[in-house]
Amino acid sequence: MNLLQNRLYREDVRRTAALPLPYEKLKNSKLLISGATGLIGSFLVDVLMEKNRTEKLNCTVIGIGRSPEKAKARFSAYEGEEQLVFIPMDIREPFSGADPGQVDYILHLASNTHPVQYATDPIGTITTNLLGLGNLLLFAEAHRTRRFAFASSNEIYGENRGDEEFFREESCGYIDCNTLRAGYPESKRCGEALCQAYRKQKGMDIVIPRLTRSYGPTFLETDTKAISQFIKKGVQGEDIILKSAGTQFYSYTYVADAVSGLLTVLLKGEDGEAYNIADESSDITLRDLAELIAGVSGKEVRFEIPDAVEAAGYSKATKARLDGHKLQALGWQPQYDIRAGIERTIAILMNCRKI
Predict the structure, then answer these.
(1) Cys-Cys with 125: which of 112, 293, 326, 343 at CB 3.0–4.6 Å?
(2) HSE-CB for 182 with a 13 A CA cutoff
(3) Which residues on neighbouring strands pair with residue 26, listed in sequence order?
């Protein structure tokens, strides 16, 4: 599936590339992205390559991922272009690719990010977040990286106990750390602490964008998050399957807005600070989300009991809405609310199925 053949997807990429961000900071630079073939990373690569092609940004994008086959298929439109380099490796292992020399910016996006992975590969979930981050921080120190961005998660806030409507960056929430499911949020929390340790001890410049539940046409077929499952059912012309009462109230972000938020934090954020990438216009309950997707795809919502593996990977948080005002103070504004993002995702994917 070549997303760049789709008009709506190209519009998303070009609109993000045209935002009034200080892209000049990336001119003639090297930027390394872990998780480059993932939902967020692949869209980011497309945006940066768009800037290279249209505005001579001359930013060398170094992508890291475990599957060269996946990278070749996803980035076939850039075959032969020297400004995109892919290094196949597992970031849990010490850096094994050809030494790229000085790397100006690093974005650590690689992570297990969906329920089945949390339940079936809890060790890999934790080690990707911690060992992978540690390896990249060592690499950044050795390669004189100007700025490092660690993509954290809304999951670090845990459960909202009813004492606040929105999680601000200084909020703590509640996580029962003595559970299998705690591996993801606790390793993200520890990752943030490791970043602060490197800032203090090594004098590194590090920012922490905190992503909400992100979605869009770049999600992977293996993604088992509820929103991804809903979208897949809708695109396939099937009823939407809801595996809970659907009262969970979460923040969501369309991939184009998630990437513009990442770039805003990378290029304008203050060293050492964390920023929620979130906006109220995309807050919705799980039931309303299922009904929205069913309505867009012309299907219905049905309830099913989840199996044991699925249930083990589900978040226990019933309310996790993020306050995005700190990022908005840097000038970030979302381009899509939840309805617009869902309609766009389904339209793009349905069109791509016909190509």
Answers:
(1) 112
(2) 9
(3) none
Residue pLDDT tens, the chain, 355 long: 589 999 999 999 999 999 999 999 999 999 999 999 999 999 999 999 999 999 999 999 999 998 889 999 999 999 989 999 999 998 888 876 668 888 999 999 998 766 667 778 888 889 888 999 999 999 999 999 999 999 999 999 988 888 788 999 999 888 888 888 888 899 999 999 999 999 999 999 999 999 999 999 998 777 778 899 899 999 999 999 898 888 999 999 999 999 999 999 999 999 999 999 999 999 999 999 999 999 999 999 998 876 666 665 456 568 889 999 999 999 999 999 999 999 999 999 998 865 3
**CA-CA distance, 161 to 317, in Å (whole number)?**
9
CA–CA gap between residue 260 and residue 205 (Å, rounded): 20
Instruction: Give yes or no for a contact between 316 and 176, defined as CB atoms under 8 angstroms apart.
Output: yes
What residue ranges in 273-354 does DSSP mark as E strands? 274-277, 283-285, 301-303, 319-320
For residue 355, give both structure tokens.
């190509």
Count of CA atoms in the C-beta half-sphere (13 A) of 117: 15
Tokens (6 digits) for 271 = 């060293």
The single-letter code of the amino acid at 154 is N
Q: What angle do CA 221, 224, 226 make, to 5 degrees?
A: 120
66 three-class SS: coil
Give the span between the Cα atoms of 57 and 2, in whole angstroms.
24
DSSP 172-239: --B---SSGGGHHHHHHHHHHHHHHHHHHHH---EEEEEE-EEESTT--TT---HHHHHHHHHHTT-P
* Close Cβ partners of 187 (under 8 Å, ≥ 6 residues apart): 125, 126, 129, 130
Q: Which CATH number fits domain 3-212+255-280+323-336: 3.90.1150.10, 3.40.50.2000, 1.20.1090.10, 3.40.50.720?
A: 3.40.50.720
